[in-house]
Design brief:
Elements (H helix, E strand, L loop, with lengths): L3 H37 L25 H5 L53 E3 L6 E3 L19 H12 L5 H12 L5 H14 L1 H12 L3 E11 L2 E9 L4 E6 L4 H8 L6 E4 L12 E4 L1 H14 L6 H21 L5 H19 L6 H12 L18 H17 L5 H20 L3 H10 L6 H7 L1
Parallel strand pairs: 3-6, 6-7
Antiparallel strand pairs: 1-2, 3-4, 4-5
Helix pairs in contact: 3-14, 4-5, 5-13, 6-13, 8-9, 9-10
Length: 459
């Protein structure tokens, strides 16, 4: 039977443990309350934390050459000249004013926009052998329909509506209001919806070419985000490189959905986050996103106490050292041999760190994850064409998030397919520096959908 002194010592130890757990519970409750309150605020998800104590001043930055770089060139064509007379009396002392010279100011504005209606007189013929009816087709026609469907929107209106809806995130109702107030053009929302569906159908072959281009790309950055299809949860996938982007909307978030775009035998390099299905591409080379790992370490350090914080802190130090080494390489401050030596030292540090035993459950999970991605941590130090993070994919997801906030997804499978096709086309145009409106207009006016190479050559 324990003695009185032993019971007192045990009681004191239990009290210390209870006090420690109470402090831990209070800390976690504070974090939970901040997350709960932040989620209710509309701007909560976009908050970057407390403002900086010494932020940069807004507005134009100082410097003599700044104004020269930012100055707009004088317009090559002047459509209207207005003479503005000088006041006869001074605004300060009310004294007489004499003319001392002239100054020129240019103002660029939009002209008055009004709908332009074109009538097409279609000559109809009939085959003398089979009796098949044939009609002429002008390049500016978007359709050969006549009768009830004979009054249609032109390619310019459809291109603008496509851009406003898929890039600007405007709903069909807002687009109809804009067209009516800007140009006096009255269009129904259902008309715009059907027009965009036809546009996506016309661009389907071009979308397949983009898919094949992504499949054969040496480096691909994939990512996914939540979506809605017919009121049911779905996923928006984004696969991008430096020049093309392909979107896909699927009901699942696994290897089967990712392989529809990349192909099961994809042998390029995938720069992705730690989502497990990407590891199923056995023939691909992998680079894991260091930003996700740093974020995970930061979240662990925010709640870890005592020795539990030692492991994520050391992991964070190694990852930051790898990023600093990349910056030195890009600044040509270190030789290629020096990069290889420094990379080997970082890998050795990570191996020694992962060889230990971990008692804290969070550290065990992180260590297991890092062991699984051991060969994918520092690949970007060997190749100049790789990013250390999957930021290109996250940038590709952002325009889709804008659309998700305005439309909350798609109602039908056909609408989801059209969404993916049109967003892929417009995003690729942006990456390639192509005019999105003229590209969509060219597709609508062509008898046969132009190939991807034809679009690049035409610009």
């Amino acid at each position: 039977m324990p003695s009185y002194e032993e019971l007192l010592q045990e009681n004191s130890e239990l009290r210390r443990q209870v006090e420690k757990q109470e402090r831990r519970i209070a800390q976690l409750e504070k974090i939970i309350e901040e997350l709960r309150r932040g989620g209710k605020r509309q701007a909560g998800p976009f908050s970057k934390g407390a403002p900086q104590s010494d932020p940069r001043t807004p507005g134009r930055k100082p410097g003599e050459s700044y104004g020269k770089r930012a100055c707009r060139p004088v317009p090559e064509q002047v459509d209207e000249t207005i003479e503005v007379g000088c006041p006869l009396t001074c605004a300060v002392c009310n004294g007489p004013v004499r003319l001392a010279g002239e100054e020129r100011q240019y103002q660029i504005d939009l002209p008055e926009i009004r709908p332009q209606t074109t009538e097409f007189v279609l000559q109809v013929g009939e085959c003398t052998q089979c009796g098949h009816r044939m009609k002429g087709r002008h390049p500016r026609q978007t359709s050969q329909a006549v009768g009830v469907a004979g009054v249609q929107m032109g390619a310019g209106v459809i291109s603008l509506a496509t851009y406003l809806n898929k890039v600007g995130g405007l709903s069909y109702g807002k687009i109809t209001t804009l067209l009516e107030q800007m140009a006096g053009l009255k269009v129904e929302r259902s008309t715009l919806c059907r027009a965009l569906l036809r546009t996506a159908s016309k661009a389907q072959p071009l979308y397949q070419e983009l898919v094949e281009t992504i499949r054969t790309s040496p480096v691909v950055y994939p990512d996914e985000s939540g979506w809605r299809e017919g009121g049911v949860s779905a996923w928006l996938w984004a696969f991008t490189n430096r020049r093309e982007t392909v979107y896909a909307i699927e009901r699942g978030r696994g290897f089967a959905e990712a392989s529809k775009i990349l192909g099961k035998e994809h042998a390029g390099t995938l720069v992705a986050d730690g989502w497990a299905p990407y590891r199923c591409f056995a023939q691909a080379t992998h680079q894991t996103c260091l930003a996700h790992l740093l974020r995970r370490c930061g979240e662990m350090l925010a709640t870890a106490q005592g020795g539990a914080a030692r492991f994520p802190r050391r992991v964070k130090e190694i990852l930051l050292a790898a990023l600093a080494l990349r910056d030195r390489r890009e600044a040509q401050m270190i030789s290629p041999q020096g990069v290889r030596i420094a990379k080997g030292r970082l890998a050795a540090r990570m191996d020694r760190l992962l060889s230990g035993n971990f008692t804290y459950e969070g550290n065990r999970r992180l260590a297991k994850h890092l062991r699984g991605y051991r060969e994918a941590l520092f690949l970007f130090l060997d190749r100049d064409d790789l990013e250390a993070t999957n930021w290109p994919a996250e940038h590709a997801i952002r325009p889709a998030v804008v659309n998700r906030k305005s439309c909350a997804g798609n109602r039908t499978r056909r609408g989801a397919e059209a969404q993916a096709i049109l967003m892929s086309l417009l995003r690729t145009c942006q990456q390639r520096g192509l005019n999105s409106l003229s590209t969509v207009t060219k597709i609508l006016r062509s008898l046969k959908t132009p190939s991807y190479s034809d679009l690049l050559e035409s610009h």
